[in-house]
Amino acid sequence: MAQVSGTLITRNYTNFSGVDFSNRGDEVALNHSPNALNMWKNYRSSNGKCVETRPDLELFKEYPDTIYGRFFFTVNNVTYLIVHSGTNLYKDDEIIYSNMAEHKSKFFIHFNSTTRVSKLYIMDGTNYLQYDGLTVNKVEDIAYIPLTIISMSPLGYGVKNNEINCLTSLRKCSYCGDGSSTVYHLNAPDSSEEDVSKVIISSIDNDYVPRVWINGTELTSGFTVNYSNATITFATAPSEPLTTGQDNVVIQFKKTVPGYKDRILKCELVEQFDNRVFVGGNSEYPNVVFHSMLDDPTYFSDLDYYPEGANDSKVKSLVAGNNALWVLKEPSQSNTTIFYHNPTIDSEHGKIYPSTHSSISTGCKGKGINFNDNIVFFSDKGLESITGDVTTEQVLIHRSSLIDTKLLNETNYENMELIEYAGYLFVIIDNKVYLADGNTLTQVNNHYEYEWFYFEFDKNITGALVKDDVLYLISDKNIYTLTKKDTSIKSYWTTIEDEFKYPQYQKTMNKKGFVVDMEGEELLVYVRTDNKDFQLIKKYKNKKGYIVSKKKKKKWKNIQLMFYSTKPFSLYSNTLEAYVGSYVKRW
Length: 587
Description:
Number of helices: 3
Structural class: mainly beta
Radius of gyration: 32 Å
Helix content: under 10%
Strand content: over 45%
Number of strands: 50
Shape: elongated
């Protein structure tokens, strides 16, 4: 066996790539840190050549009450900040709507392909609002009014046309006048599934006066309403149509179906897919997903819903990607947790979105997101990535082994916020942020996973938004940007507990010390051996480039360095040399 004692070993800590909180000791790679805080690779400023201190929070705007949601909305080339604070909705500083629910809200923009106009929609679990830049409307007040039955006779028989809109109690029926009948029966089923070729005798709401059109002209008088029997009686019988067989009488009335509106209004999850809006997360329908009509977020048919497996587990996230809408449910005893929908043409109903159970049984504990065109979600084991799409068998790959020991102990794990920014997936839990690096993968347990970094803020973060490459973070009543560079912020990077390949031997540092390539206004360098307390080696001021530390440590089994500052700094590399000595002492 070759002589080991006296061997000089050089360790180059460089190409730093992230943290490893897995507590594997000397098995941690040289370019990982077992304990780092508020350091990351900024691919925009340094092209990822170093790890550096993150920017700090900078106050952007303050509101009177807790902020539950926010969005940037552009109208006529002018961008406004729309904020849900307390019970008010603001456009910058102007209140544009009151009576909001004090509950987290979801914002989305829908661009109408026909009108070529974009409108903003807001859902807060109680209200569903539309904002066009001038007026805020409840969607239920401006929702599409369906023509549910056509080709009706005055007796009420007809042919099914549109389905009932859950968002409005208004609907229309159209008739072919016979020139003699004065009494017209309204066909008002409680569901679009009912057979409208039969007369459905039902009362209609008496708090709304029906509107009537004959040959395209609206009547303002000349008819009476019997709300209990759902009939309209004309003083003069409507004429026959000018074109034989063509409907010429339209009656609009109100018929409330209990619970229909709340199907949509109480949803807490929103995702756009295939030019429709999909919603879920309704506590009364925990395993159900609803969707709007094509190109119309104001029209949710009472038939367009899909139960996602067993109802013993609720839907946690809706994510569009990989040619499908993915429905991620919480863990279930039945193991039916991940479903997907992709468009299918049905001969009777047109385009539909049947629910298909994926080949994955692991449930979603936190949230899911489309990150770099990958469907990822947080299970009770950490971050999982779905590989494969609707044309292949889906396989789950774990992506967070390097941080799971810390991440899974977060008490608010289930209520995380996810946002993609600067090539990272920000996983925000209270004041903690775990950053999955979408630019770099590392091999762990024979497969590839994300590299990770770790931040801590001095306040809890409750929401996030990216606009024009700026990350906006919400905390209580304030909106911050992650942009402040001239600041005092604690950050540090530690190297591994390095045994220099020979754990059974003592080592002694080269008397020349070690070399660090760094940049910063102030940097404190610490060292510790054999897991004892860190000792300060030296404080460096206004350094850029290489610094040399002459500190010599003798007879240690493992050694660890820490680079620490309360001022922003960058760390490029560190080189440390040591001689191998005799065997370590055992007692």
